[in-house]
Amino acid sequence: MATSVTMTYGSYSFSPVPSFTINRNSERTPGLDFCLSTPLEIQLDGIIFPTGVNSAPSGGFENVTNEVIELNNVFKCGNCETFRVRCDTDPYVFDGPAKVTSFSVQPRNDADLYVNTAAYSITLEMVSRTGTTYDNQPSGITAISEEWDFEIFDERVAGTSDGPKAGTVSVEAAYQVSHNVAVTAPFICTGDYANGEGKIGWENAADYIIEYISYNSPESGVTGLFLPTGLGSYNHFRTVSKNVYDGTINLSETWLLCTDSGYEEFDVNVDTSLDTYLTNVNVNGNIQGLANVNYANPNSSDETPKIAGAFGKWRSVSGEIYSRANTVYLASENINQSGNTMPLHIDPLNTSFGYNNKAGTVTYSYTYNNRPYNCVSNARLENITFNENNPSDVFASLTILGRTAGPLFQDIGTSGARTKEISIEAVLPVWDSGRCTLISSIGAGIPTGYDELVNSYQAYLTGVYSGVFINSDNKNWNPKDGRFSWNKSWTVGGCS
Are residues 147 and 248 in the same domain? Predict the structure, then answer.
């Protein structure tokens, strides 16, 4: 039974059929024993016979070199055509796209310098014997690396401590995790290279990263070395770069692991002075919000910007500002005239709040002091002053003509009047009067919250002195800015 081996490359048919060798390297990553894609290397070694017959050659230099030129045109660098080898009608030994990697021609021997014959060597690469998918690593990955880095963010070691004077001070945990992946994949020809068919290397690498790279939870850490647990992952920011000619995709991403949607820094300081018994405590803070990013579905409801995280964190800590102020203040160290302690006023003396929407930050400042509580609960500011003018001596002054020592003074046995005065200045809620069409209503709305205080003081004077006479009684009320003042004075005395 006759046997005939045929070998073709695209439309080119080898005659005579060259011998061939097959070689494939085996490459694996050392850590995971991950098999990398390596192509089949097909080495063709043949002889050029211009007649196409092994016997009775009728060559000639021109005929031999013409065959060389034809081979050179077919097996150009990068050419990719279907390579087939089989015996008679048996299944194909090779049947798939093959890429030319090298081509060389040399004389068979020193006695035959391209006159009768010539020898050639051709090297082809195939992803597999048949088909367009690698046998040993179907994804076509030739190089891969994946790294995880874990570190404490900004040296924020979590824990609690006793405050300087009272309460506790806590620091939240914050960790930074980074993930770096690099994947390289070659261009895979599919047999119709001239028409642009083929799998682009970087596209293949990107597909592999999307489908196969395991995104382990960034909170998992490294057991026994670094293991942050019970935290949420935020600020998942990713950068991707591609090298078109290398067929490489590089992905870098970072997370911030925190207990909340933002992390906070604040400072607390105390101001005291000899010119006042009031102590000021200042609390100044900054909140950095953290974002949630959904790369699979951008602009979805699952995504939140940093500023949303900052606002969320502010809502959770805004009720703690007063207690933070109390960590540096002891009421027992501040005593009033009656010998009672003076706690910090629950309402701050001054506040400020601001945010930056792009940076995702919130800033705040609160000042507390140990002032007494206001007589009127809704008063922003309240100053109450008592004045007492004691009686002065009443005497006669007599001017004598020619007296160089000045006038004569004579005690007439009496004294001047004693006066008492109360002055109130306050900032109260402004008047809501629309367009001020009801002027009479505004006038009727003069605050009355201090009437009890003034009336009780007048009753006290009436109980002490037999004669109490009102000298002046003036109220001033600005409904636009809420400023209120009241000055009332009395002349007091008795029969004895």
Answer: yes
Task: Indicate if 244 and 329 belong to the same structural domain.
Answer: no
Q: Is residue 159 part of a domain?
A: yes
43 vs 62: CA distance, rounded Å: 27
Listed in sequence order, the residues at least 6 apart from 291 whose beta carbon sits closer than 8 Å to its beta carbon are 234, 235, 236, 237, 303, 304, 305, 306, 308, 309, 360
Q: What is the CATH number of the domain that holds 85?
A: 2.40.30
Could you tell me the residue range of the domain that residue 243 belongs to? 143-258
Residue 307 lies inside a defined structural domain of this protein: yes
Residue 308 and residue 195 share a domain: no
Tell me the pTM. 0.75
* Whole-number percent of the chain with pLDDT over 90: 53
Residue 67: how many CB atoms within 10 A of its CB? 20
Q: What is the pLDDT of residues 216-227, one digit of tens each?
A: 678 888 888 888
17 & 69 share domain: yes
Give the phi and the psi of residue 377 in degrees, each rounded to 5.
-65, -35
Q: What is the three-state SS of 425-492?
A: EEECCCCCCCCCCCHHHHHHCCCCCCHHHHHHHHHHHHHHCCEEEEEEEEEEEECCCCEEEEEEEEEE
**CA 464, 468, 472, 475 torsion-angle sign:** positive
For the stretch 253-289, pLDDT in tens is 999 999 999 999 999 999 998 888 899 999 999 999 9
- Is residue 23 located within the same domain as residue 115? yes
Bridge partners for 285 per DSSP:
266, 364
Phi, psi of 104 (to 5 degrees): -145, 150
> DSSP string of 161-200?
EE-SSSSEEEE--EEEEEEEEEEE---EE-S-GGGT-EE-
- Boundary of a domain, candidates 258, 293, 314: 258
Of 110-114, 157-161, 184-188, 470-474, where does the model show the most confidence? 470-474
